[in-house]
Amino acid sequence: MADKIRIGVLGASGYTGADLVRLAVRHPNMEIVALTANSHAGKPMRQVFRHLAHVPLPDLVKIEDADWGSVDAVFCGLPHGTTQAITKKIFETYPQVKIIDMSADFRLRDPATYKEWYGLDHVATDIQPEAVYGLTEHYRADIAKARLIACPGCYPTAVLLALLPLAGAGQIDFTDLVIDAKSGVSGAGRSLKENVLFCEAGEGMSPYAVGKHRHMAEIEQEIGKVGGIQDLRVNFTPHLIPMSRGELCTSYVKLVGGATAADLRNTLVEAYADEPFVTVADEGVLPQTQMVRGSNYVVVNVVPDRIPGRAIVISTLDNLVKGSAGQAIQNFNVAYGLTETTGIEQLPLFP
């Protein structure tokens, strides 16, 4: 394998695309050769993102003007519904290219479920079976062999890393999950929206997409798979909090099989003992977004509930790194047989 793997980034003018570029610039095995952003085509990257002015980067181009034959891997950072057609074209035309998709378009295995949640017909159903769900810690072996990797959403990453080991151990009731989630405003994307204006989002907290957030489908898909429940339903409520990045999920679970909160914590400790990016906090230490800001780390812990037979599982991550761009690079490393931590070993920023 050559020292440098040539990459392209679709949607490089969004927050996730920019964070992907920020991390990729210092990745020793990556060479950025193509950046697309239709609304900013023709501009240098430093004009769109001032913090990237320190490094030489290709100018932004329209998707149709990019030379996909010159790249080895493509990271897709486009909004849902816009990735399928271009991904299908690249996948079928350039068989040497691996695709790491950070959008929602290939996360759901059932096209009917995709249409139910996203309101669109899936136009690449023929390659959907090729997609591997990119939750690295739980699908590493499949990711290593995949050409199309569907990176999870930020909320599902935080929730599933906390709950999948517990579900697999049969310690929680799959059908009684209540998840309270909070995210910084970067999770809403970079496009202009009234609810993320400073005067609208600052100094307050707002629930949104109550009872119908699209990430519910991923959580239900993955926990349902472990539990053998096809039509699993979870209670999930997201909130917008007035900070740029960061995410914290509090999951309220019902214990089964005589399990205790201590048993749940021990299961997580055992499950992630050898994982480089998942930390189970010391007993009694509550996960906080300050522990992970700007990094690819996840911190989880379990606390007993005052209600008998229940426990509280808390997880936190940076929505733009482990919740998106960092996990995408982690998957890239696995797919190319590189050391998994390469390029994403940055410690959290504090304060």
Q: What is the N-to-C succession of helices and strands?
A: EHEHEEHEHEHEHEHEHEEHEEEH
The CATH class of the largest domain turns out to be: Alpha Beta
Specify the CATH homologous superfamily of the largest domain.
Dihydrodipicolinate Reductase, domain 2
Average predicted local confidence, pLDDT: 94
- Supply Rg: 20 Å
How many structural domains are formed by the residues? 2
Beta fraction of the residues? 15-25%
Q: Which architecture of the largest domain per CATH?
A: 2-Layer Sandwich
The largest beta-sheet arranges its strands as: 3-2-1-4-5-7-6
Query: Termini separation (Å)?
Result: 40 Å
- Give the count of helical stretches: 10
Residue windows where pLDDT falls under 50 for at least 5 positions = none
What best-fitting shape do the alpha-carbon axes yield? globular
Structural class: alpha/beta
Q: Biggest sheet, open or closed, and with what strands and sense?
A: 7 strands, parallel
Q: Could you estimate the helical fraction of the residues in percent?
A: 25-40%
Which fold name is given in CATH as the topology of the largest domain?
Answer: Dihydrodipicolinate Reductase, domain 2
Give the number of DSSP strands.
14
InterPro entries: AGPR (IPR050085), AGPR_AS (IPR023013), AGPR_dimerisation_dom (IPR058924), AGPR_type-1 (IPR000706), NAD(P)-bd_dom_sf (IPR036291), Semialdehyde_DH_NAD-bd (IPR000534)
Subcellular location: Cytoplasm
Family: Belongs to the NAGSA dehydrogenase family. Type 1 subfamily.
Active site: 154
